[in-house]
Amino acid sequence: MKGDFSRIRFNPGKQYTAVLEQQGRVSLDADTNEQAAINDYLRRTETVDVIGAFGAPEHDPGFAITVSGNEILIGTGRYYVQGLVCENRVDALPYISQPFLLNPSPTDSTLLNELAQADGNSAIQVYLQVWQRLVTALDDACLREPALGQADTTARLQTVCRVVASLVPPPQPSQIVNKLPISSIFREPILEARQNLAALIKENAALLTRAVTTPAANTTSVTALVPAVDCCTSMYGLIPTLSTGTMSASTAAAGSDCSCQPIPAAGYQGLENQLYRIEIHNGGTEATASFKWSRENGFVVSAITTFTGNTIVVESLGPDANLGFQANQWVEITDDSDLFGETPNSPGLLYQIQSIDFTVPSITLTSPVIGINTALNARVRRWDQTGPSATSAGVPLSISTPLILENGIEVTFRAGTYQAGDYWTVPARTASGQIDWPPCGSNGDLFQPPHSTLVYNAPLACIHWDPKQQKALVEDCRRFFLPLTEINAAAASNALHVTAMNWSNDSLMTADVWVAQGLTVTLDGTPTSPISNGDFIVTLETIFDPFQATNTGIGLASRAINLQLPSTYIRTCFALDSTITVKGPSISWTLPYLQAAPLQILTVNAINTGLLFGAAFGQYARVRVRLLGNTISSGVANGQLFLDGQCLGQPITNADGTTRIDLQLPSSTGERYSDFESWFYLAPTLLIADLTVAYPALFAIAPNGNLIGVAATGPVTGFENGVNPFATITANYRALVDTQVTLSLLDANGQASQWANIDSPVTIHAGEVFTNAAINVTGNPITNGQFTTVTITVQASITTAIGPLPATPVTFTLTGGSYEQIN
């Protein structure tokens, strides 16, 4: 903080909770500021202990990310980041209109365009970037006191929060190229699926067995297969970069030049108390980094009103020579684009003063000013480095010899990495002739790490591109928390409870809906225990075909209509381990499919294929969901709450008059822990199993060239062989509800046929397995005045919850001709 402070003093290790004034003593800014630092530390620590590092209040969650057209929008509300409260008061705030994000590059529209064109597994990661900065009267005129002649008596500490986004490639090492089209999901026969699986394993063997070497303890290495992580999880794994370099400060020893002049004493030789600030200007290693320093903690600063060439006009040149600007001094010129640019808190450019004009007032520099915008709060700040080592790039670091500042003070750096903005403060006092080093309250080491402006990045969302819907989909990565008073609606029975689930108990669902929405259970508190497939258990109970191995080889499904069905069905139980995520109080189990790896697509396809046998005669697989109450919990030790998942059943009448068992939520039997269990029935995805045309070859009947009918190709007389062509669409099992089929006729170039059209859409009615679509011949194929034969392709698709799934196209031919030719 570059303010006019006597010293900056706070050490949480001392566990101070209050600064107490004593009577008759001098009041110091350092004491008041230490109390503010204590309060801030206690408040932030308590907030993190209650909420965690990141969290949004359940009833006013802020910074929700949405996409509208080509814009990223930011929702109102609050979010807590490392104990700092962040608030957005503008509803649907456009990404590019944020006050603390200037000229973002790339813009949100560019990012969204790049996402649409990028690899399907790429994503835009969106963070809430937060830090604190010092605000003075130059930044906020309201801080000046008119009664004291516009004096700036105090400064403020401001929390800066802004949303930043970047396009990232898919998580590694999931680099297997997905060569199975989405339309093949649920469609390929098991034999074909296995063949494809074998080919993919062979093709991608190197990637599937790729080992990643990771240093361990900086001495050895371990080799392991690194699994891919989902987008949100990878964002929470972001580790901030910290500086490793250190600095020491000291005073030079007394010496003699053998002259008759008095020998200066060792220690600080200045005539005023000062707070020296040593700040890294350009980051890097000790070999490339540079620094600047100020005896006034860098607080001598003035606003720039205009500039021309190498002359800047300023609001003030300071109250006096000590707190103003003079020739040969070095100054740093910045504006808000440095503070709020893509890299926050970036340093400005250093210039040397050539001369001062108090009448304007203005400062003439030794080189022209570039890259500054006076409309963005342009500033000129004084630094005090001098001599040949002081350059426009700052003073180079040195680890071999001490670097002399002034008045007997010297600094020494050690090898390491440094970031621009790292700083150390060194109080120097005339009463003792010493500097406060190592700093009072530090660990006592001579070499101290720097203070830094910590920039926190809180994950908000991942934006994915859905190629089927051709739009961006937002995955919310925020964490949520309930008010304490509401958490103990759950604690009333000392347990967590299930409050909602995204399926209906004892109901029927198709596989595409199951895959699209997953299984989500919502609790009345946020679980803190690890949750895996061991305690979120999903099992699939499919109908077993006991007749496939009989001598006759007759499967029950193929003879369901003609045989009397049995009263007993054999179910085979499979445990399904898949992706589990926890976001606030919600636990989700999902089957990835869009942009998933090929092996995942084949796995989902195999599950769907296993559902077909029972569906042929109206018996469906059962999915059973179980959450273990003795392992799912929130909190620790005596405050740990476990899941009380028991639910009572109640009969519900469906729209068709049948009944099912619903669960009464929230769950609770007053137990400390108990399991939650629910079930539903699962039907295969309704797909087109067969697409045929009634007449694969047609002949146009057109007396005198005027089309009046269609015949099957072959010898005909008159219109005795006239036909009404149609396509037949057959589903893989009887439709559960009325289902539309979309059809089209294409010519050899993939364009809509000019000779015929087809009824579309048509409906496969509930309980039916097929439907017909009439083909209407509208023209007589003629090329260059001659009758010709054209090939027409029939395409058909059913739209499911995972997008349209087409059937294998079928073709027929249409031959032009005339009635006279037939006869």
Explain how this protein is built.
This protein folds into five domains: 12-173 and 455-459, no CATH class; 182-236, no CATH class; 247-253 and 266-435, no CATH class; 487-683, no CATH class; 688-822, Immunoglobulin-like (Sandwich), CATH 2.60.40. The chain is elongated, with a radius of gyration of 38 Å. It has eleven helices and 58 strands. By secondary structure, it is mainly beta. Strand 20 and strand 21 form a beta hairpin. The strands form 16 sheets. Strands 47, 48, 50, 52, 56, 57 and 58 form a seven-stranded mixed sheet that branches. Strands 17-18-21-20-19-22 form a six-stranded antiparallel barrel. A five-stranded antiparallel sheet has the order 23-16-14-27-28, with no helix packed on it. Helices cover 12% and strands 36% of the residues.
